[in-house]
Amino acid sequence: ENSRSRTTRLMELTGDADFGDERTAWDKTYSRQDYVFGKDPAPFLVQHVDKLTKGRALDIAVGEGRNAVYLAKKGFQVEGVDISVVGLKKAQKLAAENGVKIQTINSDLNKYKIKPGAYSVILNFYYLQRAIIPQIKAGLKKGGVVVFETHTVEHLKNPGAAGWEKEYLLQKDELRKAFSDLEILHYSETNDG
Hints:
The chain has helices at 2-14, 22-30, 43-48, 66-73, 85-97, 133-139, 174-178; strands at 56-60, 77-82, 103-106, 119-125, 140-149. By secondary structure, the protein is of the alpha/beta class. Helix 2 runs parallel beside helix 5 (85-97).
């Protein structure tokens, strides 16, 4: 069930119906010549990068590396985990283009274990695996910061999002509650269409 609904989302995203399992699906998505999500970092990360403590950073579901490479350029030691080997190769290529190094780890995040107390920063962009949230919190060093941005159920109102699975969308205020034991530096829910 799990991989089928993600596959539905990928089909919405790419207009491509030829999918097997999740790994194959993401490999296929990232196999295009261009960068599916572009090479520029997420605007939310750029806006808030000054709140982050320099050090080790973990990018969960790093994909093609746009956010990881941005942090590496800012002087962070970045590790990125992703299920797609193809995505990780593109992340390494993007890092090389930018004259920085990032460490990439090919792993299914449903099985991956985040090192406890290891990171100054943990990024989670456009990926929702609720079961990993306790590990994200445990993975932070004292004073560490989580940067988390993903879609909410509000996005179902947007054109083209009708097939998205609710399971992979945040409910209203869900993220704030999930991290209520941390100090919240910034929280917002927006839908820019």
